[in-house]
Amino acid sequence: MLDYPKIQLKTELTLIGIEYLINNQNLNMNPISGKILTLSIILKNLLAKQEIRKSSIYFFPCYKLRYKKPMKISRESKIIEQQNQSHVSRTSSTNSKINKRYLILSYKTDFEKVHYPLALNYEEHIENSRLMTKIQNLKTELLDHKSQKQNDSEILVSSSFSISKRDIQTFDSLVNQNELLKPKVKKLEETLTQKKGAVEVDQLIRDNEDLQNLLNTSKLLYEEKIQKLEQQIDLKSTEIVMQINQINVFKKELSSLIGQVETDNQIKKHIKLMNEDEESKLVKAQKTIQKYEKELESLNQQIDSLKKQDAVKKRRINQLETELSQSMKRYSYKGVTDRLYSPYSNYSNASRKSNHSVPNRANSNNSPGNASPNVRQTSPNLSKNSRSSVQYSVSIDSILVFTSETSILQHFSNEQIAILEETLSSQNTTIDQAQSQQDISNNLKEAISWQKQYVQIGFSSRIKQLTAKGSLIIVDQIKGKLICQSLQVAYQVGKPI
C-alpha cells in the first residue's frame, strides 16, 4: 500500500489530521450546543490553519477514532448496578471486551472509493501523549520506508548503468571491427569498380549481409554467455557469503567451547583444592578422635580400678562387721549393752546428755541390767565383776562407734564413686570436652591425695582419744581396715574423725 507516492502523501496527511484532532479536542466542540463539529467544518479549519487550498491538493479525509456502540443498558439494569457494585464490574468487563476501536482510512480514485479500517487496542481513558508517540512512530516508519525505497532506486540505477557500460563496451568492440573491415570493403569496391561486373557486386552484397548476420548471431551468443557467467558469479558470491556466515558461526561456537573448557578446568582445580582441604581435615579429626579414645580408655581404667577398690573395701567392711558381731557376742551380757553410753556415738540412747549428767537410778536394786550409761561409781566397795563389765562395756561401745563410722564412710564412698561414674559417663558422651574432663580428673586425684593426709591426721587424733579409755587393742586390730574406707570421705566431712 505504501509503495505508491500518492498513498504516502495521503498517509502523511492523515497523521497530520490525527494530530490536529488530538491537540484541538476542545476546539472541535461547539461551545453553545456542546456537540462535536461535523467533518466538513473540521476539514475547513484544518485547511485554513495549514494554508492549503482544497482544490490544489487531493485531500485524504480522516475520520476520528470510532467506537462500536456499546450494548444498551436498561433502567432496570442501572438500578441493579447501583445496588450491587460487583455486577457493575462484571458488566464493565463484558463491555470492554465488546467495544473496539478502528482507525478508518479512506481515499478516492477516479472510479471508486476505498476504506481501510485499522484495528486498534481499546482503552477507556486515552492519554494524548500515548497517541502522539504512536503517531511519531508511524512517521518514523514512513521515513524509513522512503529511505529504503530511495536506496532501492539508487541500486537499480547503478545496476542499469553497469549494464549500459557493458553494452557500450560491446558496441566499441563492434566499431573497431567495422573499422578493420572498412579497408577490406574499400579494396573490394575498388576491385569491383575495376571489374565493373554486376554479378560480383551482388555477391559482395550478399557476402556483406551474411557477415552482418554472423555478427548478429555472435552478438546474441556472447550476450547469452555473458548472462550465464553473471548468473554464475552471483551464485558464487551468494555461496561465498553463506560460507562466510557459517565460518563466523563456527568461530562463535569455538569461542564458546573454549570458554566452557576454561571454566571446567577452573572448576576441577577448585574441586581438587576442596578435596585436599577435606582430606587434611579428616586426618586431623582422626588424630583428635584417637587422642580422645586413649583418654577415654585411661578414664575407664581408672573407673575399673576404683570399682575394684570399692569391692575390696566392701569385702573388708563385711569382714569387720562379722568380727564386730563376734566380739559383741563374746563380751555381751544381760542388760549391759543396752545401757552403755558413749560420748562419740550418735546412735546411743543418751547422746543428748552431757558427760557430767547424773543418771536416774530408780529400780536399780531390783534389776541390775537397767543401769544408766553415765553412772559414776562413787562407792569404793564395787566388786571385780562390775569393774570388768564396765571395761567390757567401754570396749564394746568403742567398737559400736567404729562400726557406725565405717557405715558412714561406706555410704559417703559409694556416693562419691557414683559421682565419679556419672562424670566419666558424661565424658564418653562429650568427646569434644575430654581435655577439660581430664583436668577435672587430675584435680580429683590431687583432692584424694590430700584426703589421705587429712584422714591420717584425723585418725591419729582419734586413736589418742581411744587410748585414754583403754581400748587400744581393738583399735590396733582395725586400724589398717578403716584407713582405706576413710580416704575419700574426709574431704566431704571437713573435720577430723
TrEMBL record:
Alphabetized, the UniProt keywords read: Coiled coil
Recorded coiled-coil stretches: 275-323
Please verify whether the record's keywords include Metal-binding: no
Bias kind Polar residues: ranges: 344-358, 375-387
Q: Does the keyword Coiled coil apply?
A: yes
User: Residue ranges under compositional bias (Low complexity)?
Assistant: 359-374
Residues passing through the membrane, by range? none
Q: Which InterPro entries match?
A: CCDC186 (IPR038830)
Region named Disordered: 344-387
Query: What protein am I looking at?
Result: Uncharacterized protein
**The species this protein was found in:** Paramecium octaurelia
Q: What is the lineage of its organism?
A: Eukaryota, Sar, Alveolata, Ciliophora, Intramacronucleata
